[in-house]
Amino acid sequence: MSDKSIEDDEKQKLLLQQISKQFVLLGKLVFGIFLFVAPFLSLFLLETFSPELNPNILVTWWGLLIPVVTVVFYILFKRHYGKLFRNR
Q1: Nearest CA to 45 among 37, 10, 6?
Q2: Rounded distance, CA 69 to CA 65, Å?
């Protein structure tokens, strides 16, 4: 941006491109956070329609252990899947 050989119009286009990229990344971040929070919110919302759903399971040992184990298995599967099928 400090280059004197670039016209102001070109600098403005470059800045707008950078801003649009940042908005896209911000949108992806917000969407990712929403996808992470959506199952928990849906459990609380569905509890009003079906009383047998209990959101208190999220704070028990099983409610904390199952997501951690799932993430560990996902990471292991992803690593080994990449190693297995990369050479094919």
Answers
A1: 37
A2: 6
| Ordered mean pLDDT values, 10 residues apiece, the chain (88 residues) | 72 86 93 85 80 75 84 85 66
pLDDT at 28: 93
d(CA 67, CA 57): 12
DSSP code at position 54: -
Sign of the CA dihedral with 10 first, then 15, 18, and 20 last: negative
> pTM of this prediction?
0.51
Token pair 């102001």 is found at 8
